[in-house]
Amino acid sequence: MSRGDPGLQPQRTALAWSRTSLAVLVNALVVLRTGAQAGKTPLIVLGILLLVAAAAGVLYSAWRRRQLLQGTPAGAPPAAAMLGAAAVTWLACVGALACVVAGVG
User: Could you give the CA distance from residue 71 to residue 99 in angstroms, rounded to a whole number?
Assistant: First the structure.
């Protein structure tokens, strides 16, 4: 493989952003449902935040995919995107634990 050929790694990374966004979306819907059933406003707010984060992830993955299709060299994601993804992952974990503690369902 030549030095200029990155292989399939950029495509796998773009797909990973899409899968992560889908997982956050599903988690957001579960948190919203639990918050609505339990009447817990903090869970509803958390679910809305996770929905916004999922939308941002979808937009970012679409942007990355467009870069790849245009042949733009795909380097590592910006540090802000990585920190944001880590923060959203922690937020999703908190939401899942809060749903378990609320015990609705």
Answer: 43
d(CA 105, CA 91): 21
Q: 29-88, pLDDT tens digit by residue?
A: 999 999 999 899 999 999 999 999 999 989 988 888 888 778 776 677 788 888 988 898
Long-range contacts of 102-105 (CB under 8 A, 24+ apart): 102/34, 102/35, 102/38, 102/40, 102/43, 104/34, 104/37, 104/38, 105/34, 105/37
Count how many Cα atoms sit within 13 Å of the Cα of residue 47 in the half-sphere of its side chain. Answer: 20
If we measure between CA atoms, which residue out of 19, 79, 92 comes closest to residue 49? 92
Instruction: Decide: 66 and 4 in contact? Cβ < 8 Å.
Output: no
| Number of neighbouring beta carbons within 10 Å of residue 20 | 20
